[in-house]
Amino acid sequence: EVQLAESGGGLVQPGGSLRLSCAASGFTFSNYAMSWVRQAPGKGLEWVSVITGSGGASYYADSVKGRFTISRDNSKKTLYLQMDSLTAEDTAVYYCAKDLRSGGKGDVWGKGTTVTVSS
Amino acid sequence: DIVMTQSPDSLAVSLGERATINCKSSQNILYNSDNKNYLAWYQQKPGQPPQLLIYWASTREPGVPARFSGSGSGTDFTLTISSLQAEDVAVYYCHQYYSTPVTFGQGTRLEIK
Q1: How many CA atoms lie within 13 A of B7 on its CB side?
Q2: Closest CB to A109 among B50, B98, B100
Q3: 3-state secondary structure of A90
Q4: Tens of pLDDT, residues A5-56
């Protein structure tokens, strides 16, 4: 069974940092691009970042560019999101999604991990 | 960026009746080289992640009930639930995966009348 499991969320102060992880199983991880998508409380879905299967290319939403870094370790079948200079506007549930990209249908999502930025 | 606009924002339909949700993209998302519309529909129930229902505008994901169907091309798309069931109460999102950044509609909340 294809599964994604996020971890690493929590409460962080404004200006702080957090690293999210997404553990994948049930598919050949390195064959697929992976994305992070977030959902602020009571709001809709916002794509955050995508990384290619090899990890050779990545793209970011303007709202996080320069503050967030996506990466992956294909040997560990794990996706990461390093989040720096966090603000209250980054408070959200963060989902990882398989093959959510230009040309990809985003068929599997994790259950999400909650990030709260507050003093 | 391609802006996706859904209508209505919320919808109340009686059990067994038809529900229709519309989605309009700010740019054409039909790719001429493969004649495919890069449009998906997701269902999100409270406290759960989004679940893929439809991709390529009209292809049902395996396991999705046949009462869900998608239609449209170019810039205008529709998700139809032919006979609403209680378990269909959710928020529905359209999503374009034609270009980066991929984007989502604002969501349509579907309730039972």
Answers
A1: 4
A2: B50
A3: helix
A4: 999 999 999 999 999 999 999 999 999 999 999 999 999 999 999 999 999 9
Q: How far is B78 from chain A (nearest CA, A)?
A: 17
B50 touches chain A (CB under 8 A): yes
Structure tokens at B79: 């998700």
pLDDT in tens, A59-94: 999 999 999 999 999 999 999 999 999 999 999 999
Instruction: Point out which residues pair with B86 in neighbouring strands.
Output: none
Distance CA B68, CA B46 (A): 19
What distance in Å separates the CA atoms of residue B95 and residue B39, rounded to the nearest whole number? 6
CB B22 within 8 A of CB B38: no
Q: Which two tokens stand for residue B113?
A: 């009348």
